[in-house]
Amino acid sequence: MKNAVAMEQNTQIRAMMKRIFIVVILPIIVFTFFVILQPKRFGNIQTIYIVFQQAFIPSISAWGLCFVMSLGLYDLSIGSIIILSAIVGTNTANLVGGFAGVVLLIIVCIAVAVGLEYVNATAYTYMRIPSMIVTIGMLMIYETIGNFINGAVLPFELGFLGRAPANIIVGLITFFIAYILFNKTKIGMQIRAVGGSEIIAHNSGINVKRIKMLGFIMCGIFLGIAGILTVSYGGVIMPSTRLDSVSRIFSPIMGYFIGLALQKFCNIIIGIFVGEFIILMIITGMMTMGVPSTFQQVFTGLFLLVVVGLTHKVKDVEVVK
Predict the structure, then answer these.
(1) Is the pLDDT of residue 319 over 50?
(2) Scanning 36, 151, 195, 253, which has the fewest C-beta atoms within 10 Å of its C-beta?
(3) What span, in angstroms and rounded, lies between the C-alpha atoms of 51 and 281?
(4) Contact present, 80 and 139 (Cβ < 8 Å)
(5) Percent of the chain with pLDDT over 70
(6) What is the pLDDT of residue 130?
(7) 204-230, pLDDT tens digit by residue?
(8) Which helix (H) or strand (E) holds 206?
(9) In 235-321, where does DSSP find H-type helix?
């Protein structure tokens, strides 16, 4: 009996180590590839350290997007929400300055992002049209509001959250919040249930409309944090026009799909960060090779298509089984 238990434990340990190996080996392969091509420019710890820091902002956006997309919905307005929340938060922080300004920046950015996502959820619920169309319409409204307010500049002393080690600490805290909310709470469980089947979820006593509303609101919390880190890192936040803010969704959505593809090996919240880390390594590697930005965008788009295709193949295989 003891031998059987020991064998079962060893099997589980080997399976876990295999999953960890697969998740860890992917970024190592990408890193090794660019080190071989550009050993002097890419093959140093400082480059990886910078990429690691930068991976948190799109990861935080993707963690928020995870609460919406797990419901089977889309939110194309996340870029405009990040920008508008950062503009309003920065202008508010500048009114008082000092530590109080940083506190106001945090509170206002999150409050504005949550409020805008509440508007998104309300519009989707009562207009009864696809979430993609609703959020595109709201995106244009948010961009227009941002242009009326104009951009904002955050003083250097108020932007310490965008610099190491503060940005890493914020990123890790946000990771644990996302992990717990999505995996260990009743809301996270119900979001996954609704995404699996609205009919079954409704028959189980879940208020589907309420959960969809909460999914958008959860997304808003993380978009507000992303707005804080974005303006703190760059120091300047400018409004977008002509749907330019849509470009901010590509990296988060790629990270989400990579996380989805890695879900059979690790938790999706972990997989999202691994995906964002890989994407940024690829972009940084192409920059060190002198690849023009236009080709970087083309490669990023192709990479997204490949990842989405592989993700759907994984799902098809699981259905057949």
Answers:
(1) no
(2) 36
(3) 7
(4) yes
(5) 86
(6) 87
(7) 889 989 999 999 999 999 999 999 999
(8) none
(9) 250-261, 268-288, 293-320
Smallest CA-to-CA distance from 217 within 64, 57, 86 is with 64
For the chain, the structural domain boundaries read 29-35+45-292
Judge whether 161 and 228 are in contact, CB under 8 Å.
Answer: yes
Report which of 286, 312, 310 is spatially closest to residue 299, judged by C-alpha positions: 286
Task: Name the residue with tokens 């920008």.
Answer: 83
Rounded Cα–Cα distance for residues 152 and 108 (Å): 14
Query: Checking phi first, is residue 155 left (phi over 0); if not, alpha (psi -120 to 50) or beta?
Result: beta
* C-alpha torsion sign, points 19, 20, 26, 28: negative
CA distance 65 to 68: 5
Fold of 29-35+45-292: ABC transporter involved in vitamin B12 uptake, BtuC (1.10.3470)
Tokens representing residue 281 in the block: 């390594």
Pick the closest to residue 247 from 300, 196, 207 (CA basis): 300
